[in-house]
Write a structure and sequence with these properties.
It is built from three helices and no strands. By secondary structure, the protein is an all-alpha fold.
């Protein structure tokens, strides 16, 4: 309703100078000569339009400009906040990345230490197994040597008995011959074994 009234008033006010000009149109116009009627109506129209614009247009325009200004300030503040958040997030991510790198370096160092320890344990275990294997081989060799010496003694006894029976030309019983030769050989090999070694 107010805008309708304002439009009617504006039409009337703007129409009055046009009518005044039509009445003066019959006369010659001198642009340098002041015309009091024209100046009055121009001033009156200007003042009326100024009041109407001040009452109905300037306030909404000023409010719109202020609202736009407030929206821009809010957008700038939000952008600054977003920028600060992004910088904080970047710093957090950088810290997390540094922590992950440090953890990876720690794990690599730990793996090296564990690998070295495992290698040393395996070497020690291999040396121990090798030592046991050598000991077992030495024991087997010693057992085989003893068995070979025992076999050799038995054979020597049998040969000695066979030789002695031929020399004596009589055959003693086997058990007696063996005891005789074994008792003789029991005294002889200790000195022969020491000399052989």
């Amino acid at each position: 309703m107010r805008s309708l009234i304002a439009a009617v008033v504006a039409t009337v006010v703007t129409a009055a100078p046009v009518l005044a000009q039509e009445q003066e149109a019959h006369e010659t116009v001198n642009l340098l000569a002041p015309n009091a009627g024209l100046m009055f109506w121009t001033l009156l129209i200007f003042l009326v339009l100024l009041v109407i614009l001040a009452r109905f247009a300037f306030k909404p325009l000023t409010a719109a400009v202020e609202a736009r200004e407030a929206a821009l300030e809010a957008a700038i503040k939000q952008a600054q906040k977003d920028r600060d958040d992004a910088a904080k997030y970047l710093a957090d991510q950088t810290k997390a990345l540094d922590a992950a790198r440090a953890e990876a370096q720690r794990m690599i160092a730990e793996s090296r230490v564990t690998g070295e320890k495992l290698r040393n344990e395996m070497l020690e275990q291999t040396k121990h197994q090798q030592h046991e294997l050598l000991e077992r081989a030495r024991a087997e060799i010693d057992n085989e040597r003893k068995r070979a010496i025992a076999d050799l003694r038995r054979e020597a006894v049998e040969l000695a008995v066979a030789g002695a029976s031929k020399v004596i030309e009589r055959n003693l019983d086997d058990q007696t011959n063996r005891q005789l030769v074994e008792s003789f050989l029991a005294t002889v090999p200790t000195s022969a074994a020491r000399g052989g070694r």
